């Protein structure tokens, strides 16, 4: 009996092969031309750097705790459990958003030189 690879496995393998060949370019490559008519173009881009907690874990955790505590004050029995979980989820989302807004306003901005291949 002949064994075959499932289609989704074959697609995943082919897709990851393309990722392995991706190349990055630096300022030293600026102006480099390729046979397909493309060339490397570099430009200065303003990027925000948040040195502390870029994944906003603190805001998410704090919001989840506060939301869970507030949700626990509502209802009784299974309704209280559901309200606690819902409060924790909503509080976590709100805390993440609040921390993200704060980081957006107070983050350090730096200029980076990024190079890409274009036509």
What do you see in this structure?
The chain is an alpha+beta fold. It has one domain. Helices cover 50% and strands 18% of the residues. It is built from 3 helices and 2 strands, in the order αβααβ. Strands 1-2 form a two-stranded antiparallel ribbon. The longest helix has 29 residues, at 78-106. The radius of gyration is 24 Å and the shape is elongated. The mean pLDDT is 83.
Can I get a quick summary?
This protein has 119 residues and is α+β, with helices and mostly antiparallel strands.
**Class inferred from helices and paired strands:** alpha+beta
What does the main sheet amount to? 2 strands, antiparallel
Straight-line distance between termini? 49 Å
Task: Show unreliable segments.
Answer: none
Tell me the fraction of residues in β-strands, as a range. Answer: 15-25%
Principal-axis shape: elongated
Helix percentage range: 40-55%
Q: What integer value in Å does the Rg equal?
A: 24 Å
Mean pLDDT: 83
Query: What is the strand tally?
Result: 2
Number of helices: 3
Give the number of domains: 1
Q: Taking strands numbered 1, 2, ... along the chain, how are they ordered across the largest sheet?
A: 1-2
Order of helices and strands: HEHHE
């Amino acid at each position: 009996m002949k064994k075959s690879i499932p289609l989704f496995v074959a697609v995943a393998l082919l897709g990851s092969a393309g990722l392995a060949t991706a190349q990055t370019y630096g300022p030293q490559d600026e102006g480099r031309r390729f046979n397909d008519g493309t060339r490397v173009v570099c430009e200065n881009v303003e990027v925000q750097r948040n040195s502390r907690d870029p994944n906003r874990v603190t805001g998410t955790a704090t919001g989840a705790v506060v939301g869970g505590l507030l949700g626990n004050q509502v209802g009784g029995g299974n309704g209280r459990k559901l309200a606690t979980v819902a409060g924790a989820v909503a509080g976590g989302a709100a805390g993440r958003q609040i921390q993200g807004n704060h980081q957006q306003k107070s983050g350090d901005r730096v200029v980076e030189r990024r190079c890409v291949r274009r036509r």
